[in-house]
Amino acid sequence: MILNETPVRTSKNFNINNIELTDFNIPTNIPKFNNVTISDNISITENTTNFKLKYGLGDILENQVKSSSNKKIKINIEKNIAEPILIDFNFNKDNLSLIEDIEICASENKKANIIIKYRYKEDIEYYHNGIIRLNTKPNSNINISIINLLNEQSYNFLSIENILEENSKINYCNVDFGGKNSITNYYSNLKGNNSNNQINCIYLGKQNQFFDLNFIGELYGEKSNIDIEVQGALKDNAKKHFKGTIDFKKGSKKSKGNENEFCMLMSDTSKSIALPMLLCGEEDVEGNHSSAAGKVDNKQLFYIMSRGFNYKEAMKLIVKARFNNILENLRDEKLKNEIIYEIDKRLD
Amino acid sequence: MSKTNIEEINRNIYDIKNKDEYDYKIKKGLTKEIIEEISKQKNDPIWMKEFRLKALDVYNSLEMPTWGPDLSELNMDDIATYVRPKTGLSNSWEDVPEDIKNTFDKLGIPEAEKKSLAGVGAQYDSEVVYHSMKEELIKQGVIYTDMETAVRKYPDLVKEHFMKCVPVNDHKFVALHGAVWSGGSFVYVPKGIKVDIPLQSYFRLNSPESGQFEHTLIIVDEGASLHFIEGCSAPKYNKVNLHAGCVELYVKDNAYLRYSTIENWSKNMLNLNTKKAIVGNNAKMEWVSGSFGSKISMLYPMSILNGENAKTEFTGISFAGKGQNLDNGFKVIHNNINTSSIVNAKSISKNGGTCTYRSLVRVNETAKNSKCSVSCESLMLDDISKSDTIPTSDIRTDEVEFSHEAKIGKISDKTIFYLMSRGISEEDAKAMIVRGFAYPISKELPVEYAVEMNNLINLELEGSIG
Q1: How many CB pairs under 8 A join A and B?
Q2: Same domain, B417 and B294
Q3: What is the pTM of this model?
């Protein structure tokens, strides 16, 4: 199954244009997913609308969501909501597979903070294939956090598509820890003038986990802005692909785009492939990207260990310090602590 | 600030067309019979004929690239792959026919030879017409000759290295090259010999609807050093010309090689060239590249750092104007411990031109304690041009320091304002900024070539900014 193609291809020999999953069949005949908790500060329906994703992970997974989703959630943000809207999917032996279709529409001038969590109970293989669509009307402002805390045996597929209208803003925070294979496609269409998309992502891989992250931002509106910040750590045989595309379309005058990716390699068998692309069809823009990879600085490690921490504790501290800038964006102390606990657990 | 119209530049000396006169031109197309005929015309040894036919099979088995610029206008049935000029190889400019000599005169090659080069090779269409090197280098055992002579005179050396660094199944146009190659230069620098003054080969394609497929093979033996300069140009025709050359460089242990290129093909040329270097223990490979011509260019020089402490540097600039799509970049593979690479790439797009920087950095498991730093900058001079950066990094060990940074933008209004406040006109201020942008590359070239590059930048900028 070919998945998660980049918007622009590069040489086939670089092994980054897409991924191919072999020995994997998508499950069929999936019962309803019942173990989900949704906070009561918003009313939801199941009346999601039809769609065709511009990118997404691929037709097979998209069609599965269209035809067989076992959880549909439609949210209309029609008033400012101070408390976070929490959607908490908890996988267990009775809820092994989730195929969800989430559609969120933020009305003009409205603000909300949405947290979507994926957790598990028994340590068995789960399957998740989700599509989240978010449309922000003029002057709306949405914080959305996607927290993937699945185990290392599961399959996690997620496609996100955002349409940002004039003066609207999306702060997106992605915590990607779970999945034997965790494949994410994120696309933002910044069509409105002054639209703004902040993307912060952390991933943490161990054992044989594989992450394929494909972030695509297309800037059409004038003075639009996108920032992609990705921090990750890989131990054991974990591997990640980071694909980031900032595409300044003609007419996106005075727009800015930045992408920054850093991968901390914690073993000599972990692997990091990155393709941070800048595509530019407009003169009057500023685009920057940087990417880096390497192991933990020995001096830093030595300094922390000289203060009485053992090697493992020192490594955990360094990883948490790296991730902290991104976790600060969560604006929810309880959730932040939960993630820090997960980092400690997964680095043990 | 107002903008002036961007005019198509007059490429003056580079566009001089000679009459399409030749001694032999093979019929257009690419068949087994054509390859056999090229082999016959070139009086190949049997091993080379067999090599060509095998390469043709590989060519037919490989698909066209599924990425990069659109190559659909390339039809091999419209291309003559071998054109022998109406002269043989000589080592005196006096023996070169007048019109061909005039062309090289206007390109400044004989003059540069006198002033600043230790040796010169000049290729016209498919064959080398002039080759010469200073006597003292010959005495030191340096070999600098055309590739055909090398195949005959140094068969073992050639067999050991020919298309081993760039195997024919690398990609479709390497296979094409393997089947139809003709001309090019062979250099061997013996152990410990330092060639202080550069050697230069210049490749000129005059014949319309034809291709140039020269093969450059350079071996810099242990502890030796060399600076090699490659220049290329062609007059513009209405139909497509093709360049699919191949450059193989062997930089042995403790050796040093700098390979500089000023590429100024005509703007009907598809430049699908392949360049690769294998770098040994403590050796250093430097690439300096200026890419100005071609309608489409797909050129990604590559260093394979096989030796401990091997180093490479790439410094390159691409300048794309109207109708040009220059998809250039660099590839480096780190295979051994303590290897290092530094990449500094720049591009300028104007008048609807497209520049793409495409690259690969791969640090393998065996390359512990390696370092790699990549920087690329793109400048857009108007809002009808395009500039893309598509860099891939593939890091397979933790004992590495890798960083990549890139930026895209236009000329800063503040800088223009500052220069104008010092009495400099807007046009001069912009030209000054562009030259400053290109300076890190031009400073790496010998002064004569830096001047040529600055002239090319001036030519490209004339009437184009404001």
Answers
A1: 132
A2: no
A3: 0.92
